[in-house]
């Protein structure tokens, strides 16, 4: 932890090994988005227009949920400027890609591109970092929750992944809306209201039974997929005073076909090193990071990372360790004693 470096420090050393043109936008990524959009339109129309036994809609819901998530991953790329550069086209395409998740492009760039990327895993300034025990203990309800056994908390935490992205997006909207200039605020409001209005309008149009399969279940599935990645991106890493992506980020490994349909979202350390580079090039970035700093780089199979999340508590004790308040047990974080192969707790010193 004492030997931390900024993402610019790493980026400067990796960039000299990268081929020319890697920072140019890659508009071909939009073909994947067009495929997802066609699937979503076809799926919603199939459920809306045909009267089948309700549970026959479930396979379509699963496909819709996966497509909602895929569009969100592409929207993430678009709004980093790695697909198209022109601002109004970027915002338009980003709004369409994030439409199923009802997150506006201006809010996303403020919350994610600026605050999260610049202050990654900073205790106070990263809007996505998990808080310390000291901050959580200010709430009586939170103190009660953390008296429950760890496995019960883990169960409900994993169940909540089905709503976490949507809930956090709404929280970020109300946290940041006042940070926009008064002239910009109506546009930010509109970008939040229009998607929700369209989905609620669909409810009035097709009725709640079909709407559950056309939107509600797909939204839960999309949340689960997206949060499966986001929850592993940083929550096993320490809080840090310096935005060091090799210390504060985790890349997960998934089958190649999953990387293909998720636009290489698994390469998260690489993304924090080069957020303005298309994720198409992240495998090469990973190669050079592992060659230059093999002992610093954190990489784990997605399944193993999720198991580690299940077995460890979330509040931070001293920025480097995670604490289970109900038993006074401490767990290491990545780079600070956490061994995913054999997760063990130690008692907190009196």
TrEMBL record:
Superkingdom of the organism of origin: Bacteria
Chain segments annotated as transmembrane: 30-50, 56-75, 144-167, 188-206, 212-230
InterPro entries, A to Z: FA_desaturase_dom, Fatty_acid_desaturase
Chain ranges of the Fatty acid desaturase domain: 56-301
Keywords (A to Z) from UniProt: Membrane, Transmembrane, Transmembrane helix
Record flagged with keyword Transmembrane helix: yes
Membrane as UniProt keyword: yes
PANTHER family: DELTA(5) FATTY ACID DESATURASE C-RELATED, FATTY ACID DESATURASE 2
Name recorded for this polypeptide: Acyl-CoA desaturase
Species: Halobacillus amylolyticus
